[in-house]
Specification:
The protein has helices at 33-44, 58-64, 101-106, 127-137, 224-242, 251-260, 284-296; strands spanning 5-9, 48-53, 74-79, 116-120, 123-124, 146-154, 165-172, 178-190, 193-196, 205-207, 212-220, 264-271, 276-277. By secondary structure, it is an alpha/beta fold. It has one domain (5-296): Spore Coat Polysaccharide Biosynthesis Protein SpsA, Chain A, CATH 3.90.550.10. Helix 2 (58-64) links the parallel strand 2 (48-53) and strand 3 (74-79). Helix 1 (33-44) packs across helix 4.
Length: 304
């Protein structure tokens, strides 16, 4: 079985953070969160990384993150640009926002011929998440349906003290197969639980901290690339009519379509690790403190 690949989504604009958080140093050695993910991926058994970036940051990215990729990991770069559209489509006037995470994954198609995982560049996922995902992806498929997976985190391990977050709330069956992901775009931490609103705070609904959520850590078989290539024009036809400036092609919705039509299954692999991320500038010190604590505990060396 081939070593799995890791696709890292690093083309985001960091609008709430106020900058390119995918390259922002998070320790005194200058490592970004992405460096920790690559370190964890290598020791879990991944053999290749594909960075999805924008052309505008290519040289800076290669001079920082690219130069720090450890030996033994093959490195490729793919570019998510707003004008990377199928034949017959054009960018609507005023559109600057990327076309979403599923479009970003599709940009890696030329480099994928093995099972692969997808992560965000600016999320810290923990050692355990990469291990359970690598173990899953290195198993030979035993079914006609493509075996997909996602790493689920407990909601209480993924909320910030500094504002609201968006999370995919997961429902699973008794075999931990995914039934559905429901996007909640405004979740805030409360004392002992979380709450979400869908009407700008007029009403709130409680969510327990042990609810499983998606943090965009997915595992796929290479067949999904052909499916995304077929699905993207269908998405565009609808989005260009209904939401031309902000419509996005998301991984969960694209994967759900394949689950619903019987082409794939989605196993939810539970990680009890703490997630860390920098949604807001105020989150940075918390992340730096947490990463230093992990070094102090021997989870990571000071230099890597």
């Amino acid at each position: 079985m081939k070593k799995p690949a890791l696709v890292i989504l690093a083309a985001g604009m960091g609008s709430r953070y106020g900058g390119l958080k995918q390259m922002d140093p998070m320790d005194t050695q200058g490592h970004a969160i992405i460096d920790y993910s690559i370190y964890d991926a290598k020791r879990a058994g991944f053999g290749k990384v594909i960075f999805i970036i924008k052309k505008a940051i290519e040289q800076d990215f290669k001079d920082t993150i690219g130069k720090r990729v450890p030996e033994g990991i093959k490195v490729y770069y793919a570019f998510q640009e707003v004008d990377a559209l199928p034949e017959g489509f054009s960018v609507p006037e005023g559109r600057v926002k990327p076309w979403g995470t599923a479009h970003a994954v599709l940009c890696a198609k030329p480099f994928i011929n093995e099972p692969f995982a997808v992560i965000n560049a600016d999320d810290y996922y923990g050692v355990d998440g990469f291990k359970v995902m690598a173990d899953f992806l290195m198993k030979e498929p035993q079914s006609e349906k493509a075996p997909f997976a996602m790493v689920g985190y407990h909601l209480g391990n993924t909320v910030t003290e500094n504002g609201y977050v968006s999370r995919g709330i997961c429902e699973v069956d008794e075999n931990h197969q995914l039934i559905s992901i429901t996007e909640r775009t405004h979740i805030e931490k409360r004392d002992g639980h979380a709450e979400f609103t869908e009407d700008n705070g007029t009403t709130w609904t409680s969510l327990p901290f042990d609810k499983l959520v998606s943090m965009n850590f997915f595992g796929f078989q290479p067949m999904i690339m052909d499916e995304l290539e077929k699905g993207f024009p269908l998405f565009l036809e609808k989005a260009l009519k209904e939401n031309p400036l902000k419509g996005e092609y998301f991984i969960p919705s694209a994967a759900s379509d394949l689950l619903n039509c019987g082409k794939a299954t989605m196993k939810v692999l539970v990680s009890k690790d703490q997630w860390y991320g920098v949604t807001y500038p105020e989150d940075k010190q918390n992340v730096m403190d947490a990463l230093q604590a992990l070094k102090d505990a021997g989870i990571y060396p000071e230099e890597f």
